[in-house]
Amino acid sequence: MGLAAVLRIALKALRVNKLRSSLTMLGMIIGVAAVITMLAVGGGAQERVREQLKNLGSNLMLVLPGSTTASGVRLGTGSQQTLTEEDALAIALEVEGVVVAAPALRGTGQVVAGNANWSTQFFGTTNDYLIARDWPLAAGRAFEPAEMTGSAKVVLIGQTTARMLFGDADPIDQVIRVRKVPLTVIGLLERKGQNALGQDQDDILLMPISTARNRVLGQSQGRLKRVGSISVKVADGVDMKSVEERIKELLRQRQRVQPGVEDPFTIRNLTEILQAQEAASRVLTLLLGAVASVSLLVGGIGIMNIMLVSVTERTREIGLRMAVGARARDILKQFLVEAVTLSMIGGLAGIALGVVGSFVVGALANWTIAITPQSIALAAGFSAIVGVFFGFYPARKASRLLPIEALRYE
Asked: How many domains does the chain have?
């Protein structure tokens, strides 16, 4: 018996009991839809972490000053100014695997442009900061060497700050005031979006570190040449943990830290933190998919149950078919095709429901979803496997009936 004939007989048998067939497929529909929705939600979580990693900058470390103690109270990271521009230069030149090490001074203040004003953060840094953060310019230019050494009154502006000060107007060559110091906008940064903490990375100003030190933050900063942080970008393919250890060893030597004494600085491997989050999101996706797969298992058990009932109800029909020449493998094929057809129709309906459900969940929960062809193929393939697995036993039982005993069955 050809496959087309077997499929035609299977569909005819399923149409005889439409309600029972529909209820049997319901388990597969819910199972496949649940798998697709859960994988979409988990995939969305991974996508958000990857986007944060991209916005942060690849292979990035942040070196921060250590903490200090006042009256027995530890004031936290950054309270003791222990890092200098020379430390950043030494890291860039002496630590193998480091692409750039960008020193930075941070401040906050009111920025004024014409009649508009906006409170934002600003960084005094170098062009290496743009390389470390993978942060290109949308318009304008970066700092020139003479501007870096001469405390030039120039600034790069983030997208949010530009919008708040200038609206839709071009900010290039406009003059803004930061702590009453006039600065000319020479570049507009590309949009970065929010970071992992939900902070707007585009609400920022970048100026030469000499400008921040000598003109904006005050002369005391100029004499000390201290910096608030050093952004370190590591080359691709280099072990970041080993680079971190070499930076730690170099800084301890430069700051003459004795053995056994706590480091007067902190190194944060930001890429490693986000990669750990991505791994956690991946585990979450697998866990959600595994939980949703239980409903597929339940749907498969439902198919087996209905097929066993069908074999019992159609025992005389099986006997007649075998009496007129049908072989055992024909009977096996017929009932197996019925089970797989139930499973596949339910799987296709479940895919449609799962895609719609994923978008609904994403819209209601304001959550990023990621529906991939792989997840749809996995759900469809799994539904077919469930049909074969749970349909084989009833089909095998039907094919092993003896024609005489089957004809006597009432």
From this structure: 2
